[in-house]
Amino acid sequence: MSAQIIDGKALALKLREGIAQEVQALEKDTGIKPGLAAVLVGDDPASAMYVRNKKIACEKAGLYPQEHLLPAATTQEALLALIHQLNADPKIHGILVQLPLPAHIESKMILQAVSPEKDADGFHPVNVGRLVEGDPVFVPCTPKGVMHMIDSTGVDITGKRAVVIGRSNIVGKPVAMLLLHRHATVTICHSRTKDLPAVVHEADIVVAAIGKPAFVTPDMVKEGAVVIDVGINRLPDGKLVGDVDFDRVKERAGWITPVPGGVGPMTIAMLLQNTLESAKRFAKKITG
Ligand code: NAD
Fold first, then answer.
1. pLDDT 10s per residue in the chain (288 long)?
2. Does residue 213 contact residue 182 with C-beta atoms inside 8 Å?
3. Is 132 inside any structural domain?
4. Residue 65 CB–ligand 1 contact under 6 Å
5. Domain identity same for 150 and 259
6. Which one, of 267, 264, 273, 272, lies nearest residue 58 by Cα?
7. Which domain holds residue 185?
8. Is the CB–ligand 1 distance for residue 4 below 6 Å?
9. Which of 121, 204, 229, 245 is catalytic?
């Protein structure tokens, strides 16, 4: 039987509609409009497109977007000064620094300069620590979207075997932590995992975040499993695909996300949600 498709576009649209209503209500009640500052250094076309899409999404949902497009030669000191300025700006509740930064800038130092209370991407060590402790403030956007997609299936995560393929700080590790907090039995696979197909085959929930087209094949997937494909890969013919061999795996899985139209749209929706939640926390501090 063919899997049910988890429609990321439809889920994200619904989320964004809810966010837009909450943004309006917050502004009406407190005068506060959630503000998101995006910082881009250099002219990488893919990064520029991501930042532009985030700005459009902010505008559509009624948030206040601020764009800082800086030349590639921007010094680390100048970038730090901008981050400090945004940390102090009361109109800004979320700050995102588009990665990758040019080689002469120390990304770690910049991400650590962002106030943990405005860290919309959830990459600051303080927020990573809060997440590990099970008391998160900002959950990284893509992992948050992954959890929302799993929840949309109605499958109870408690006690399930979950396998996350990929151990990056921005996807693999936080997804594994979120699944663990929801009482899944979690295994993280990576490039040095022995007999990876056998490990994946035990999973009721598979999250693939590798960056390799058609990496997850049907023989690896347990019948009826939930398969979430985070990968974004551009094939030589220009086609965009995930890490899962979608056409074949969908014949075995119970639920599956497509690429495009899966996790991607959820990431932006969660960025808006993180900024809204941050603005609400600021409003609470002011109004008591
Ligand atoms: P990354 O390169 O930082 O990490 C990839 C991980 O895959 C590594 O931990 C590595 O151990 C693992 N890996 C590589 N080769 C492997 C192999 N042969 N066997 C097992 N594991 C292997 O990548 P990332 O930033 O985590 O992103 C992963 C993918 O997700 C990329 O395609 C990226 O474009 C995509 N992504 C999508 C979104 C979204 O919004 N949809 C967001 C972030 C990343």
1. 799 999 999 999 999 999 999 999 999 999 999 999 999 999 999 899 999 999 999 999 999 999 999 999 999 999 999 999 999 999 999 999 999 999 999 999 999 999 999 999 999 999 999 999 999 999 999 999 999 999 999 999 999 999 999 999 999 999 999 999 999 999 999 999 999 999 999 999 999 999 999 999 999 999 999 999 999 999 999 999 999 999 999 999 999 999 999 999 999 999 999 999 999 999 999 887
2. no
3. no
4. no
5. yes
6. 272
7. 141-263
8. no
9. 121
| DSSP per-residue letters across 167-209 | --TTTHHHHHHHHHHTT-EEEEE-TT-TTHHHHHHT-SEEEE-
Does the CB atom of residue 164 touch ligand 1 within 6 A? no
Find the 257 Cα to ligand 1 centroid distance in Å: 16
Q: State which of 148, 171, 272 you would mutate to test the pocket of ligand 1, scoring each by most atoms of that ligand within 8 A of its C-beta.
A: 171
Hey, what amino acid is at 134?
A: G
Distance 166 CA to ligand 1 centre (A): 5
For residues 102 and 197, state if they share a domain: no
**Residue 98 a catalytic site member:** yes
CATH number at residue 151: 3.40.50.720
The CB of 191 under 6 Å from ligand 1? The reply is yes
Nearest Cα residue to atom 4 of ligand 1 = 168
Tell me, in angstroms, the distance from the centre of ligand 1 to residue 231's CA: 6
User: Is the CB of residue 127 less than 8 Å from the CB of residue 115?
Assistant: no
Nearest CA to ligand 1 atom 8: 166
User: What is the rounded CA–CA span in Å between residue 249 and residue 237?
Assistant: 22
Q: What is the distance in A from the centroid of ligand 1 to the CA of 38?
A: 23
Specify the pTM. 0.97
DSSP-H helix ranges across 114-171: 125-133, 141-152
